[in-house]
Amino acid sequence: MTHPGVELITAFVRESGLGAGTIEEQRAAMTAATVGLPIPTGITVSSATVGDRPAEWLTPADQQPPGVILYLHGGGYCLGGLATHRVLAARLALASQLSVCLLDYRLAPEHPFPAAVDDAVAAFHDLLAHGIRSDRVAIAGDSAGGGLTLATLVALRDAGADLPAAGVALSPWTDLTQSADSYDRCAEVDPMIDRDRLQVMADRYLGGASPTAPLASPMHADLSGLPPLLIEVGEAECLVDDAVVFAERARAVGVDVTLNRYPNLIHVFQAFPPELIPEGDVSLRGIGAFINDRFS
């Protein structure tokens, strides 16, 4: 059984050549595919600097009591930024009625591991330094940003820092060894990612570091003591095992984990127009409810 929206997306991706070329060409293609998409009505966008990095605040007009989602974008640690993920972050702000802080963390290969982790940790501390309580912050991200979300939680716990109220990972890349069975199982149905493409990005990001370093591949970290987690993944994507196995390992050490698996859906399906993938809005509303329920 297939999903009609996924069929259209698959045809577009394969005809457009997205994902091909050099890192620079992929960056340009990713930006071109997302630039000009309309921001949802009722969301204000403002520029900022958070943790010494460029950022944007996506703020709903009818925001609930103060609370912040620190959002870490996807792109294999090599692609993406404010322009590519502004609409997704705005949709999350609208669904949650919370302010979303979209962080422009440093990218590889210019800034290899652990630069992205350092930037995310610094951004979280900066939010606290400006008076936002840790129990009113959630960290969320998609793909590499989902893995970065989990790595940031591990880094904060290891440092003995205050932890956010929750973490949310959409299609997280949790294991940079690319050894999961789902790379083979979903190779014919996932139009977005594949083992070879992610291996190139992993090599650029790691810069010689071990692919099993806990802050690069949180699958291999000690996961005890993390805050409640929500993990969302499509069952037709190569990273489904990264999500499922991570959730199993986190639960095994006592972490409160909610794992939602969506049949026939692909990598970061929430980023596609709801006209094509209506389940994206369902997911975002669920994420908003999950985070609000865990704010003190």
Question: Your description of this structure?
Answer:
This protein has 296 residues and is of the alpha/beta class. The chain has one domain: 3-Layer(aba) Sandwich (Rossmann fold), CATH 3.40.50.1820. 39% of the residues lie in helices and 17% in strands. The protein has 9 helices and 8 strands. The chain has an 8-stranded mixed sheet, with helices on both faces. Strand 1 and strand 2 form a beta hairpin. Helix 2 crosses helix 3, helix 3 packs across helix 9 and helix 4 packs across helix 5. It is globular and about 50 Å long. The mean pLDDT is 95.
Describe this protein with a few key phrases:
296 residues, alpha/beta, Rossmann fold, eight-stranded mixed beta sheet, 9 helices, 8 strands
Write the layout of secondary structure elements.
Blueprint: H1 4-16, H2 23-34, E1 43-50, E2 53-60, E3 68-72, H3 82-96, E4 99-103, H4 115-129, E5 137-142, H5 144-158, E6 166-170, H6 182-185, H7 195-206, E7 229-234, H8 240-252, E8 257-262, H9 279-294
Helix pairs in contact: 2-3, 3-9, 4-5
Helix-strand sequence: HHEEEHEHEHEHHEHEH
In terms of quaternary structure, what is this? single chain
Average predicted local confidence, pLDDT: 95
CATH topology (level 3) name = Rossmann fold
Largest sheet: 8 strands, mixed
Strand order of the largest sheet: 1-2-4-3-5-6-7-8
The helix count comes to: 9
**Strand tally:** 8
Strand fraction: 15-25%
Indicate how many domains the architecture comprises.
1
Report the span from N to C terminus: 42 Å
Q: Could you say which overall geometry the principal axes of the C-alpha atoms support?
A: globular
* Stretches with pLDDT under 50, minimum 5 residues: none
CATH architecture: 3-Layer(aba) Sandwich
Radius of gyration: 17 Å
Structural class: alpha/beta
CATH homologous superfamily classification: Alpha/Beta hydrolase fold, catalytic domain
Helical content band: 25-40%
CATH class: Alpha Beta
